[in-house]
Amino acid sequence: MKLLVTGGAGFIGSNFILYWMKEHPQDVIVNFDKLTYAGNLENLKEVEKNPKYSFVQGDICDPVSVDKAMKEVDVVVHFAAETHVDRSITGPAVFVMTNVVGTQVLLDAAVKNAVKRFHHVSTDEVFGSLELTDTSKFSERTNYSPRSPYSASKAGSDHLVRSYFTTYGLPITITNCSNNFGPYMFPEKLIALAITNVLEDKKIPIYGDGLYVRDWLYVEDHARAIDAVLQKGKVGETYLVGGMTDLIPNVEIAKKILKILGKDESNIEFVKDRPGHDRKYDVDWSKIKRELGWEPEHGFDEYLEKTVEWYKTHEQWWKRVKSGEYEDYYKKQYES
Ligand code: NAD
Ligand code: DAU
Predict the structure, then answer these.
(1) Mutation test of ligand 1: which of 5, 6, 12 has the most ligand atoms closer than 8 Å to its C-beta?
(2) Structural domains of the chain, with CATH
(3) Which residues belong to the active site?
(4) Per-residue pLDDT at 328
(5) Which atom number of ligand 1 is nearest to the Cα of residue 177?
(6) What SS3 string covers 261-276?
(7) Tens of pLDDT along 120-154?
(8) Which end of the chain is more exposed for a tag (fewer CB within 10 A), N or C?
């Protein structure tokens, strides 16, 4: 089988490729990635010489290179996107271009080349925000209610993917998952930012009152969930994917990281809030468990310790990532 993975040099895409090549060594993988600030081929060092793996630098908004890359592809796994909510607030245009237009360009090429499956990786943020007091969770039946330019652009992409199923019969599946964490997580996002800041003797910036809640999914569990959907999922269906997380406020996550690293809570700094900050996400992943037998392998605390350990042993990786463009971004985001 030949897979085209878009955005395979990013956080989740690179973890997915590493996972897939271990679990399905007979398959051929083409990684199609523009290499924006978030793309990093270092993540894929251990497979770069494998003859079953190849890399194409290209933009999903460019129909010519997308069509070329789609030749003889059986399955598309579409991760490529602009993904950081804070960046979507300061510069929404590229989010619409990549996430909406780029997805539509890929869908056209998938129809033209008659791919057997187009799997779209999306987010629980399309469902909007829960109140802290809500006992309900997001499910496959929840209405869309995106509240940031990022989540609005992902919602647009989800609608397009479904429309290509009903209109053109393209065999699609969609997963909407919660906040991923684990190796190669880009340190602009909370857990990686917090761990690397502590390792650098810097404070952890916590937005607003710190009581915002996310559902946390370990990235390898996510890769296994996509695998389950590709092997056993029903065409045209959507599956929600989440972690084994009690509802933990952001400030408690910061405290857990500080405790693992032997530092005290004075290393937390409350900073100005994110505009339109979604209060809570909570994901009901009972459909994928019931229908496909998937569930997370471990709980949040075990995975958090494992993630901290990974950052401790991969200092070169994150120090390189945190230099250059990242330094300018950090100054604008946290020091203005
Ligand atoms: P990321 O930001 O780490 O990586 C995105 C990758 O896409 C990068 O390698 C980048 O170079 C590439 N890319 C960006 N624009 C491109 C373009 N125009 N053409 C080709 N490649 C391009 O993202 P991530 O965190 O790994 O997220 C992957 C997918 O999962 C996204 O679709 C995101 O919406 C979704 N998702 C992420 C999370 C999360 O917690 N990170 C949670 C739910 C869903
Ligand atoms: O829910 C899935 C989504 O999770 C993905 O679709 C997005 O691509 C991904 O970026 C992530 O979005 P969030 O906005 O939830 O993730 P982030 O890591 O940016 O923030 C997590 C929480 O931590 C959120 O409540 C904001 C808060 N936060 C974040 C940063 C970067 C802070 O308190 N301080 C920070 O410095």
Answers:
(1) 12
(2) 2-184+215-245+280-299 (3.40.50.720)
(3) 124-125, 150
(4) 87
(5) 43
(6) CCCCHHHEEEECCCCC
(7) 999 999 999 999 999 999 999 999 999 999 999 99
(8) C
